Amino acid sequence: MQYPKLAKDIMVTKLVTLSPQSDVFDAIGLLLKHRISGAPVVDENGQYIGVFSERQCMNVLVKAAYEQIPTTRLYAFVDTEARTIGEETDLLSIAQIFSSTSNRRLPVLRDGALVGQISRRDVLQAAHELMRIAPDNNSPLLYLSSLLEPSEAPIA
Prior knowledge:
Layout: H1 7-10, H2 24-34, E1 38-42, E2 48-53, H3 54-66, E3 85-86, H4 91-100, E4 105-110, E5 113-119, H5 120-132, H6 140-145
Parallel strand pairs: 3-4
Antiparallel strand pairs: 1-2, 4-5
Helix pairs in contact: 4-5
């Protein structure tokens, strides 16, 4: 049995995405409609630009309250520095990123194009599945450590 241990094994591929040309208030409405806390922003060719999340929405609200917003184009509010991962990133590395950052989701890229996304919940679900199929149910967390190759060191 192949264990889901890489990003490509556990990523979600059907995503709500946003265009950088979108109106920021329409984008907020889309997040609310789909009950999601953020969405990747991609250009017309599917190339990843960044993320628009609840945090950026708060920036929009604050700027609207205290100053005139020079534009309502979404691109002005996109987090272009948001962390991303590749398809071959292993489950433990993904868990370490979530553990050490405030990220709720990680876009998965292939050659700069968005191919999927992984949330904290996706990682928990994959880890839970691995623990359920662990050979010794008394030590499922020890089994998770076997996902690392002997030469791999944990991310600091």
